Amino acid sequence: MRQYNALINNELIDNGQWLEIMNPATLNVAGKVTALTAEEINKAFSVARNSQQSWEEVLLLDRISILRKFRDLIDENKNEIAQIISEEIAKNLKESLSEVIRTIEIIDYTFEEAKRIEPLALTGEGMGAKNKIGIFSRVAKGVVLAISPFNYPFNLAFAKIIPALVMGNTVVFKPATAGSLVGAYMSNLVIQAGLPKGIFNIVTGRGREIGDIITSNPEIDMISFTGSVGIGNQIRKMGSTTDLVLELGGKDPALVLDDLNLEKYADEIINGAYGYSGQRCTAVKRVLVNNKIADKLVLILKTKINSLSVGMPKDNAFITPVIDEKSADFIQGLIDDAKNKGAEIITGNKREKNLMWPTLIDKVTIDMKVAWEEPFGPVLPVMRIDSIDEMIKIANDSQFGLQASVFCQDISIALSTAKRIKTGTVNINSRPQRGPDSFPFLGIKDSGEGVQGIRESLLSMTRYQGLVINY
């Protein structure tokens, strides 16, 4: 039984109250973390505020040197961290380790990029103002609340935490309930690394019980949140005077316009749709294909999907159990709705508790829920469309606008199509994806607010402070 404590002011908090975290693969308890009280959570924000000014006054290179000790401990413990991730979210061990290594790479890149956030120097002569020089530097916003999701509980946590800390902010970090074990595991590493007191605090507890307490604290200067649309919109309403960066849901379409490289298209679509059992905001969640080539594409997809391994994380299966049975019930409901309305189940539609076989649904129409709702599971709907204009209309009618893919060998057609799709990013001849992590990452509509990516996150964690010299 793993047991990890919350961290406030570099002190491990054991208040005798615990939150159990389930292992989705075994449906047994994987471990437990401290369930904090409202008073303890408020204390975390208070110490973060009290520590912020002195932390910001530390020279940038010295902040990086201090944080590097923490980074090195992550590297030393990467196999243990990967094991915890696998146990609490049923991600296979290979992908869990890959997530940790990717996070270390992001931290290293962040350290280097932070050195290049330089002041902006201006003169007033262009506006007729003589003898004025303005120097505009990026300074910390203050106290950052970082909230991570269950699906990438390590990577998407530190993509927020490290940019915040390196730029002189202090952090209160709330991991998702499933994801709390690896989040709270960091408490011991913070202490071992000797980070200054109060700059990085880890608060744990069930989100629906403490969520409002966490997100409404008056000490918060910025919230960086990755998670559901419902909670994201709640934060929007509560944090009206707080800077926000939100990464929410997606209904990422893949538009297949020709049949000149269907094998490659199918590989990209399958990796996009079924990676980590489809539990990704950037997963391919619907295929819009020209009706004339749909039969060929569906046959290729079926063959490749049937070769995917299905099983447990410890066996490094490609398809592993979804996060819980409630999620599996929702996914199954979308499949059943499509089938009842005339869609054709090509493969899959098999389930053992929360282990769901990869499902391919053909002849999906706009009256079916799966055409619009985000399943967050291993199900892929195929919609047969007669024209590019109709594909674009269906893609744009979604409440979401995260990413999309266009598969086409004629680059002129691909680009002209991509420019008409209303999303944060359109990928040409590849699946939707968050990386490379040095690229800006953003969504519009219900998919999010603000921009992430290494440089963009550093900028979002800071604001301009101007100094005007008159001479």
Topology record:
Layout: E1 2-4, E2 6-8, E3 11-13, E4 18-23, E5 28-34, H1 38-56, H2 60-76, H3 78-89, H4 93-114, E6 120-123, E7 132-140, E8 143-147, H5 155-166, E9 170-174, H6 180-193, E10 200-202, H7 207-215, E11 222-226, H8 229-238, E12 243-247, E13 253-256, H9 262-274, E14 286-290, H10 294-305, H11 325-340, E15 344-347, E16 351-352, E17 355-356, E18 359-362, E19 379-385, H12 388-396, E20 400-401, E21 403-407, H13 411-418, E22 425-428, E23 441-442, E24 444-445, E25 448-449, E26 451-452, H14 454-460, E27 462-470
Parallel strand pairs: 1-5, 8-9, 8-11, 9-10, 11-12, 13-14, 13-21, 14-19, 18-19, 21-22
Antiparallel strand pairs: 2-3, 4-5, 6-7, 7-27, 12-25, 15-18, 16-17, 20-24, 23-26
By CATH, the architecture of the largest domain is named 3-Layer(aba) Sandwich
Describe the oligomeric state of these chains in a short phrase: single chain
Give the CATH topology of the largest domain: Aldehyde Dehydrogenase, Chain A, domain 1
Q: What is the spatial order of strands in the main beta sheet?
A: 15-18-19-14-13-21-22
Query: In angstroms, what is the radius of gyration?
Result: 23 Å
Report the end-to-end length measured between terminal Cα atoms: 67 Å
Structural class: alpha/beta
- What is the CATH superfamily classification of the largest domain? Aldehyde Dehydrogenase, Chain A, domain 1
Number of strands: 27
User: Which sheet architecture does the biggest sheet show?
Assistant: 7 strands, mixed
CATH class of the largest domain: Alpha Beta
